[in-house]
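In response to a reviewer's request, we include the raw inputs and outputs for one of the modeled complexes. The two entities were modeled together in a single run.
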Amino acid sequence: MTESTGGIDMDEESSGTVKKFAFINRKAPYGTIYALESLEVVLISAAFDQDVSLVFVDDGVYQIKKGQGTKAVGMKNFSPAYRALEGYDIEKLYVEKESLESRGLTEDDLVVPVEVLTSEEMATLMDEQDVVMSF
Amino acid sequence: MKFGILVNEGPYNHQAADTAYQFAKAAIDKGHEIHRVFFYHDGVNNATKLTEPPADDRHIVNRWSKLAEEHGVDLVVCVAAGLRRGIVNENLAPGFRISGLGQLVETGIQADRTVTFGD
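The model returned the following structure tokens for the whole complex.
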């Protein structure tokens, strides 16, 4: 654990500082590795006690879609991990309304409770962040 | 200003690796500080010393190493992403070090701005 999370031992400078982090998930879950590796960053960030938000836009909304079956493509279905985020105190999940609608999805299709924001509201949310990392 | 840089794409395959370097170089030339460059996803491929581009092309890996040597820039490769792609200490180019994702989060906390270069 220590090796793969290295740097968990925060130096003096980082401890105590709480910044607003937003991780922007833009890609479908299995065509590329971005979604899986983004989730790894999110889980690590929890150890730093930061104010973390997760954003799902564009094909990123498919990352939290119910009923993912990955057996045929030989990849691990990691969507259950999003349900575990609550246990890491990561509870701010936002999904862009337009991205859902243009894909024929609704909140009921998602594995976790989210807050749906319009793209305009999403822009405001991002504007409020200290650190935005986009995957 | 203190910048953190996240590089998410591999060299030669994607312009992000070039743009990140140009950005870092320009920032240093303007008197800013680069707190850390963190290599993630295929970005870890920026760190292999086995890279040998044609002689008339830019050498992206050596360019990073030179940046570390001349300006003391901290070049950090994600251990988990590196292991997946075969980037380990044995083939690590000079100036790079392998560490964990915590270093990326730490950069986000400590730098004034963190800039992502990716697809």
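As requested, we also summarize the result in words. Helices of chain B lie at 15-29, 60-71, 79-85, 102-110. DSSP finds four helices and five strands in chain B.
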